[in-house]
Amino acid sequence: MSLAKSPWIIHVNVNSCNGCDIEVVACLTPLYDAERFGVLNIGTPKQADIMVVTGSVNYKSVNVLKNIYNQIPDPKVVLAVGACASTGGIFHDCYNVIGGVDQVIPVDAYVPGCCPRPEAILDGVVAALSILEEKKKGNIKGKEVKLKGNEVPSNA
Amino acid sequence: MTTVIPFGPQHPVLPEPVSLKLEIDNDVVVGVLPSLGYVHRGLEKFIDTKDYNQTMYICERICGICSGIHGITYSRAVEKLFDVEVPERAQYLRVINSELCRIHSHLLWLGLFADGFGFESLFYECWKYREDVLDLLERFTGNRVIHSMSKVGGASRDLTKEQIDQILKTLDDLEPKVKNIEKVFVNNYTVKKRLVGLGVMSKQLAYEAGTAGPTLRGSGNAIDVRNTADWDIYRDLGFKPAVAKEGDCYGRTKVRIDEIYESIKLVRNAISKLPNGEIETRVKGFPTGEAVMRAEQPRGEVVYYVKGKGTKNLERLKVRTPTFANIPSLLLMLPGVKLADVPIVVLTIDPCISCTER
């Protein structure tokens, strides 16, 4: 019960331009106030339920992302915020960019936009909540993502 | 015996991934080794495939916090290549956008900084006031964060009479609110206890280390590109750089608060002098030659270098961002600081990692 009423989120910036990050933080501040949904931003992945990822993944941050994902206990939900996190966005062609977050870890909900408005991010968090509830019932486990060594860009 | 403690890349205080390896001896930092590259996208190479008008949108996405000023500086650099004169109204619109960006960036930083030393209510207070400025920017440019107000040859949006009234009214309301939070940052006993005498850089050292922006001015150097570069508008508007003598975290905080007042003054002056007329000059042809453009971002001086080869895309774009200049100063400030104070010192240079790594 407490999981659905008070989910704790961890905010992970993998390769973002800061635009989505400041909007994610703006969600938590008085005007948009995500805390009325019981949402609390937490520093450590071991206490988190929802992982909010901003930015496309690059070859250096990919292991950080996998590492944090593996540390979050089940059931967990991943929310990709912004065009970059969803598909790679404007940067999808860059030599150091792998692509959207779903290339690396399973993503449950997407919030499009560059940058998405705080209302849209809140909507995504609420959508993630219902997915979290489903996962809890079905007892679905998150996929263990294997860490590789330093991945070398294929086109480098 | 020293211990090595990793700080970042994922850290509760930092919204962005930067990794510092801290060498600790009895809770006191003795050595720092920064490791960068978590936000590197490769934008300077990426512009090979875009034409010079599209590159403006790439430049705005170098950093989401100072995006407006990135776009404006890039536009001015390319205009220098073409040697076109931008209409005066467009230049004033750019100044208004830049200064509103600066107010929102400084309020954002003050909030994150308060959060960094554990003053949560002050953090919420700053971000609540920041929303007023974001509303203005949204009315003016159509978006809260990425503005795309500037383009090569002028401005893409004009201000209407109602928008100008709205800006003036909001700034009148904002000023007493900033005074309220200034009282806490400058006079509060607990805040001063955390900030005074922490991360000290002398005037000479800050200058020699090549720091930029409030880090430089917080040590008593009155150097601001708005005052020294070849953009006359700021001098016409009566700009004065904000300086603090302390050289510690407290001084750098005071500089940023003073800059909010200075920016409010500049927006008011720019609106009172706003000339009528066109907002855009048509730019034709392809860029050739090379040009350098400097501007003052909320975090310090940004330098744009552009080189054209007579085709629709630029041959080279090089950006030198303020945090790149400020990170070496961390290596000077952090030794001798306690581990618990490291986040505060790191935050006072206002690190913008996505700017630095692009």
Description:
The complex is a heterodimer of chains A (about 160) and B (about 350). Chain A is an alpha/beta fold. Chain A is built from five helices and seven strands; from the N terminus they run αβαβββαβαββα. In chain A, strand 1, helix 2 (about 20-30) and strand 2 form a beta-alpha-beta unit. In chain A, helix 2 crosses helix 5 (about 120-140). Residues about 150-155 of chain A have low confidence and may be disordered. The two termini of chain B are about 35 Å apart. The model of chain B has no long low-confidence stretch (mean pLDDT about 85). Chain B has about 350 residues and is an alpha+beta fold. The relative contact order of chain B is 0.19. Chain B contains 15 helices and eight strands. Chain B has a three-stranded antiparallel beta sheet, with helices on one face. Chain B has a three-stranded antiparallel beta sheet with strand order 6-7-8. In chain B, helix 3 (about 65-80) packs antiparallel against helix 4, helix 4 packs antiparallel against helix 14 (about 340-350) and helix 5 (about 120-140) runs antiparallel to helix 6 (about 160-185). Helix content of chain B is about 50%, strand content about 15%. The interface of A and B includes residues 44 and 60 of A.
